[in-house]
Write a structure and sequence with these properties.
heterodimer; A: 330 residues; mainly alpha; ABC transporter involved in vitamin B12 uptake, BtuC; two-stranded antiparallel ribbon; 1% strand; B: ABC transporter involved in vitamin B12 uptake, BtuC; 11 helices; 2 strands; 75% helix; globular
């Protein structure tokens, strides 16, 4: 047991990687690209919210910073998209570290932390909607240039594998966190901050580390979004929609679990698509369902889809214990 | 010369601030008693604005008359939401309440989008554009009405809290929930009553706002952070704090809009919000925790 838990990551990613060989339907691939994008953004939220217990309502701040950095560097400064992608992630992480430093230093937690992150995201949205460098109200359009060097691809499958690779990377990072002392400290802070501090955990450093990793992962989603859609405006990049999707996926999938965001994103996006097929392209209907599912999950399945699945198929390690328990009762 | 422009900007800010104060009154009441952050507050305001719009356009009822029906209706809506949705689903955990109210906000906002589409709508009441002169400044009549009504509602709220049995129970629950429960107060009922009162405040705010404002499914978002700002600024749960904070926020927005341009007006409020949260989270008037 040198590397506990990585086998399942490899299996899940390998299975998903085969999808483009099974179907070449652009509709299905596009659907999966979006679901994986939300899974990535949600995984970012999950590191801070799920493992660290700090519920952010403003992950759009990181998503938008990643997206705008990649786009603006290309459009305004002619910097290639590949380094732009990396700079975008770094910029998102930096914004996360700054917001985290300011908020945690002031001891903001719970609802206050949610509010202050939301406010930061809104300030960035308003600034982006008037600043000339982002194209203000018109938005930023990345020139169509379908070449590998420009991070633009003819085939959806390539985009799919790239977002899958990013999701895979995020899964590995989360697994590493789970297996590390940092992860243990993070969970300790989530469960009881004062007790963790009394045991010698540097609470500030732990939270700040989680926030920076969280912001970087979510910013990667933003960078990918910019390359995939080639268009941004303030409402897309910094809008509340992405903050909501970022927390929806892990909470519905299973908060604080490695596969929660992926499961949640697939469930949520499938529900949204199903709703569109039943009623046609009515605006808002998918979001009505998301909101209702959110309330239902919080009310009835606090451990999300992952918790429900576990109840149906208990983990093998636990199964014998339960079987014996059952026998002794007989 | 400069003051001739600034004074109207401040006066208009004060008038807008009174409406903000009304929205914040409901939020601060709910916070003060239930100790929860109601993220659905903005969406409920949007719903109330659409209700006013519907009353005027379809039923031909003037907004100032509609308040008599809408305030009780939204009281019932708020009561039902807390009693049958938020309370049971949240299992008493703060983070759950955040998520449940967020979920409700998403549902309401998008249900309105589904029904009314994204168009921005207004109503044209005969007095919509009438103005009165005050100290050399022309002020919009609906806004002036809103200003005085905000104080009337705050007074009414104070009277309910101070003089009625329900008000006493609400204050008891806010101070000491367990003790109130032990002396026979139905806490779930009082929570729902409080949520209902807070929601009714929104209906009143909507009726006062609509003659000089507009509505679209996302309009509540603009108010929700402003209202949170005011609640934090005035000290969580403080009624006079919400009034003063509201007027202050209105002036800040108006002056920022004046100096930085219309679209940047709200940025002053949000920056103020961040600064207050970071440096004085108990509010300007609140006691140190």
């Amino acid at each position: 047991m040198k590397a506990p838990g990585y086998l399942s990551v490899v299996a899940v990613v390998a299975a998903l990687a085969l999808v483009p060989f099974v179907t070449s339907s652009n509709v299905i691939l596009n659907f999966l690209v979006i679901a994986l994008l939300i899974a990535l953004v949600g995984q970012g939220w999950n590191v801070l919210g799920g493992y660290g217990g700090q519920y952010s309502f403003g992950h759009a701040a990181f998503f938008g910073t990643g997206a705008y950095t990649t786009a603006v560097l290309q459009v305004q400064y002619g910097i290639n998209a590949w380094p732009g992608f990396a700079i975008g992630i770094a910029a998102g992480a930096l914004v996360g570290a700054v917001i985290g430093f300011l908020s945690f230093r002031s001891g903001l937690k719970g609802s206050y932390f949610a509010l202050v992150t939301l406010a930061f995201a809104e300030v960035l949205r308003i600034v982006a909607s008037v600043a000339p460098i982002t194209g203000a109200g018109v938005g930023t359009l990345i020139r169509l240039d379908v070449r590998f060097e420009a991070f633009q691809f003819q085939s959806r499958a390539i985009f799919y594998w790239i977002i899958l690779a990013l999701v895979a990377l995020s899964l590995v990072i989360v697994r590493m966190i789970e297996n590390s002392r940092f992860g243990a400290r993070l969970v300790a802070v989530r469960e009881n901050e004062d007790a963790a501090r009394a045991l010698g955990v540097d609470v500030m450093a732990t939270k700040l580390g989680a926030m920076t990793i969280s912001a970087a992962i979510t910013a990667a989603g933003g960078c990918f979004y910019a390359q995939y859609y080639l268009f941004l405006d303030a409402g897309i990049a910094y809008g509340p929609w992405i903050s909501v999707e970022a927390l929806l996926a892990p909470i519905i999938g299973g908060v604080g679990t490695i596969y929660g965001p992926l499961l949640g994103a697939l469930v949520v996006k499938t529900l949204g698509e199903a709703a569109k097929h039943v009623t046609g392209t009515a605006p808002g209907l998918d979001l009505i369902i998301y909101g209702a599912v959110l309330v239902l999950v919080v009310g009835f399945a606090p451990r999300g889809v992952a918790g429900l699945l576990e109840r149906l198929w208990p983990r093998r390690s636990r199964a014998p214990a339960r079987a014996e328990e059952g026998k002794s009762r007989d | 010369m400069q003051t001739a422009i600034i004074i109207p900007a401040i006066l208009n800010g004060v008038l807008m601030g009174a409406v903000y104060a009304l929205v914040a009154l409901g939020l601060t009441l709910i916070y003060g008693v239930l100790h929860i952050i109601n993220f659905a507050h903005g969406a409920l305001l949007t719903a109330a604005l659409f209700a006013v719009y519907f009353c005027f356009r379809t039923l031909g009822i003037d907004p100032y008359v509609a308040v008599l029906g809408l305030a009780p209706l939204f009281f019932l809506l708020g009561y039902a939401l807390q009693r049958f949705v938020i309370g049971p689903a949240a299992h008493g955990e703060d983070s759950n309440i955040l998520l449940v109210t967020l979920g409700i906000a998403v549902v309401i906002e998008n249900a309105l989008l589904y029904v009314f589409r994204a168009d921005t709508r207004t109503i044209d009441v005969p007095y919509g554009f009438s103005v009165i002169e005050f100290g050399g400044t022309f002020l919009s009549v609906p806004r002036v009405v809103g200003f005085f009504a905000a104080f009337a509602v705050a007074g009414l709220l104070w009277a309910i809290l101070a003089l009625t049995d329900t008000g006493k129970a609400i204050r008891a629950v806010a101070k000491e929930k367990r003790g109130a429960e032990l002396s026979g107060i139905d806490v779930a009922h009082i929570y729902a009553m409080t949520f209902g009162l807070g929601t009714a405040c929104l209906a009143v705010a909507a009726c006062l706002l609509m003659p000089s404002y507009y509505v679209n499914p996302h309009v509540g978002n603009a108010f929700v952070l402003v209202a949170f700002t005011i609640v934090v600024l005035g000290g969580m749960g403080s009624v006079p704090g919400a009034l003063i904070g509201g007027l202050f926020a209105g002036v800040v927005e108006s002056l920022c809009g004046f100096y930085l341009g219309e679209s940047l007006g709200q940025i002053g409020i949000f920056l103020m919000f961040i600064l207050v949260l970071l440096f004085r989270p108990t509010g300007l008037l609140g006691a140190r925790a």
